[in-house]
Every structure is written in structure tokens, then in C-alpha cells.
Amino acid sequence: MIYSFRNFRNVAYFAFGRGTFDRLDEILAPRRKGRDSCVVFLVDQVFRAGSLRERIPLRENDRLIWVDVSEEPTTRMVDHYRDEILGYGDTLPDAVVGIGGGSVMDYAKAVALMLTNPGSSADYQGLDLIRNPGVFKVCVPTLSGTGAEVSMTAVLAGPSKKLGIKCDYTMPDQVVLDPELTAGAPRDKRFYTGMDCYIHAVECLTGTWRNAYSDAFAEKSLALCREVFLDPGDASPEADEKLMIASYLGGMSVTYSQVGVCHALSYGLSFVLHTRHGLANCIAFNHLEDVYPEGVRDFHAMVGKQGIDLPVGVTRDLTDEQLDRMVDTAFRLDHMWDHAFGKGWRDKVSPEWIRELFLRM
Ligand code: NAD
Ligand code: ZN
Predict the structure, then answer these.
(1) Nearest protein Cα to ligand 1, atom 16
(2) CB-ligand 1 contact for 147 (6 Å cutoff)
(3) How far apart are CA 337 and CA 342, in angstroms?
(4) Which CATH architecture has domain 187-360?
(5) Overall average pLDDT of the 8-14 stretch
(6) Which of 2, 124, 287, 330 could form a disulfide with 129 if both were Cys (CB 3.0 to 4.6 A apart)?
């Protein structure tokens, strides 16, 4: 194991448990500065209909923005929400709360940062480019698996690349984990995002950057995913709790380890075909038995047990130019290849091989 020195920030506050969402007003109260306090809630518009809407603790000056996640987060929309919020008045909000899956949580994290950093969010895609801490960030997951609620990145598609705004300041300040919020998620979405978590664990455990810290989180995360999707593989309330914690632990593991081959390929798929992250991971992982034999074997069992129809032939009709862009996007993710194969990864990984993997999908 390679122990390279790194000094990480963690989530400052977190609350877990059924019904915790109804304590959100209480949780936010200490963050409010004065009587004119404003908190901005970014909420997945899937909740426009339904009872969650009434439970959002809006106070007088608070704002609610419904977020469309039909496409994964873009730098363009981050800038748009930032401008909208700055237009509310001269003072910044006391907090930005993201209620939704990984997409809305990443929007909340990125928008909170862009309220205090000039220019476009596209200028900050990369490592440690943000200069000023953003406003207080709260993440409330409604879908479990990405680990975005505990990660130091907000993944965005920009004009030239899909890459996170990654730095200490991106880490949420507060997380509210209420498994009840995930109960209504459609089965396929729950599975694809759940598999994001499973794949995080497999990749963290099988690369050169792994260490005792990341292993501990990944092992438990993997075990919980297996309990949820394999044995007994039901969707009971306990399963929602387990998956929510698996997601959290997966995020903790990735922080001190890294994702690998599947994620590099998945980024290529998403950038060119706009395939959602969880699904793109599943499409790629389905063909990676040479790289992750055990992980892929169990993955196939989970797909079968959960009755999921995975798309095939998704790269069949790509033009050469699209395929080149896909390969280029994946090949550029040095850190993932480095983790998967070690410092000499360029001897093992070539654009031709990546192309061949894409063509299998
Ligand atoms: P998502 O947020 O894109 O949501 C997927 C779908 O599920 C959407 O249609 C959404 O409306 C719906 N949905 C969410 N919660 C629901 C609920 N409770 N009931 C019904 N429908 C619900 O999906 P995701 O997989 O959670 O997030 C994917 C995004 O997260 C991608 O943009 C990916 O890049 C990002 N990501 C970020 C990190 C990170 O560390 N920041 C890690 C992995 C993935
Ligand atoms: Zn992922």
C-alpha cells in the first residue's frame, strides 16, 4: 500500500435517522444571521408534486429553486442559479441547501462556492482552483449511492470537459441523512445509483492508492451493498438505511483512495452520450470482468436478482469523432488510471485499448 501524505477536510455536521428531515429548520437555525436571514433551497423538481414540498422549512425571506436534473449538472446552469441568487439582493444567503440526488447536491455545492468566487464555474473545474470559501452548504440526499453528500467535489459538465470542482471548500458543511426520503425512488434509478456506490467500493479496494483508512470504509460499504442488492436483495426500510450509509461510507473511502477504470470509462460515456453517471457506470462495469473479476461477477448476480435490463450496444452508432472524444475524455483521467494500475499505467493503458473497451459496450 502506498501512503501518500494528504490532509483532508470532512463534513462538519451530520444528522442521521428516519424523520430527520423534519428537524431541518432546527438544524439551520444556528446558521441564520439576523431577522432578514435568507436560505436558498435547491430542490429536485421531482418533488414538486407530493408531500415533501410542504415539509421544506421555508422562512419568510427564504427562496426555493426547483432544479431540473434531466441532464446532469452543467457549469452553465451553476452560473445561471448563482446569478439568480445574486439578483435577490445585496446580502448573500446564509446557507444553500440541496435536496435531491447527486445532481442536486452537486449543484448546491457548486452554487454555494460560486456565490463568493468570480467568473464562471467552468474556470474552476479541477483541483484546488477555488480561492474563497463559499456559503454554508447543506446536502440532503434523496437517492443513495453517489457519496456526493460527503465528497470534496462537485462534478460538472463544462464546455470542454466533465470534471469536478474539487477542493476542501466543496465539502458540505452539514449533511442530513433521512432514509425515508429515498423510499419513493424508482427501482431502476435506485439500482443504478446504488451500483455507483458498489463500484466506488470495488474500485477503492482494488487500486494502488488504497490504504487502511479507505479499505475500512469500502469494505463495510461493499458489504452493505451486497446485503441490499444480493442477499436478501429486498427494498425494505432497513435496506434504505443500509444503502444510505453505504453511500456515505463509499464517499469517505473514495476521498482517501480513488475510483478506477470503470469511472474513467463512465466519464467518457457521460460526456459524449449524456448518459447518467450511475447508468454509465453499470454499462461500463458490465464489461470489465478482466479488470475486476469478483466485483463484476457479483454485479451480474445483482443485475439478475434485481431484474434490471441493462442497455447494450450503446456505442454501436457512434461516429469516429464521438468515439475519439470518448476515448480522450477517459484517457485524460490520469489519477484514475494511476490508482488502478500504478505509476507505470501508461505502459498498460493505451487509447486503443480504451477504444476497444468502449466498442464492447
Ligand atoms: P440524480 O441526482 O441525477 O437523479 C437521478 C433521477 O432520480 C432523477 O430523475 C431524479 O429526479 C430522480 N430522483 C432522485 N431522488 C428521487 C426520489 N427520492 N424519488 C424519485 N425520484 C428521485 O442521480 P444520482 O445518481 O444520485 O446523481 C448523479 C450525479 O451525481 C451525476 O451528475 C454524477 O456526476 C454526480 N456524482 C457526484 C459525485 C460527487 O462526489 N460529487 C459522485 C458520484 C456522482
Ligand atoms: Zn461514481
Answers:
(1) 185
(2) yes
(3) 7
(4) Up-down Bundle (1.20)
(5) 94
(6) 124
Q: Where are the domains of the chain?
A: 13-182, 187-360
Q: What is the mean pLDDT of residues 79-88?
A: 97
Tell me the pLDDT tens digit for each residue of 272-306. 999 999 999 999 999 999 999 999 999 999 999 99
| Per-residue model confidence (pLDDT) at position 352 | 97
Dump pLDDT digits (tens) for 142-188: 999 999 999 999 999 999 888 899 999 999 999 999 999 999 999 99
Q: What is the dihedral of CA 237, 239, 244, 248, to 10 degrees?
A: 150
Which atom of ligand 1 is nearest to 183's Cα? 18
- What atom in ligand 1 is closest to the CA of residue 189? 7
Pick from 140, 153, 181, 189 the residue to mutate for probing ligand 1's pocket: most ligand atoms within 8 Å of its CB: 189
Residue pLDDT, tens place only, 60-81: 999 999 999 999 899 999 999 9
* Residue 220: closest CA among 252, 256, 179, 262: 252
Query: How far is the centre of ligand 2, averaged over its atoms, from the C-alpha of 14 (Å)?
Result: 21
Q: How many whole angstroms from 193 Cα to the centroid of ligand 2?
A: 8
Ligand nearest to the CA of 153: 1
- Cβ pair 96, 136 in contact under 8 A: yes
Closest CA to 82 of 40, 124, 45: 40
114 closest CA partner among 170, 44, 176: 170
pLDDT at 2 over 60: no
Summarize pLDDT for 245-266 with one digit per residue, the tens. Answer: 999 999 999 999 999 999 999 9
Closest ligand (CA of 71):
1
* 13-182 CATH fold: Rossmann fold (3.40.50)
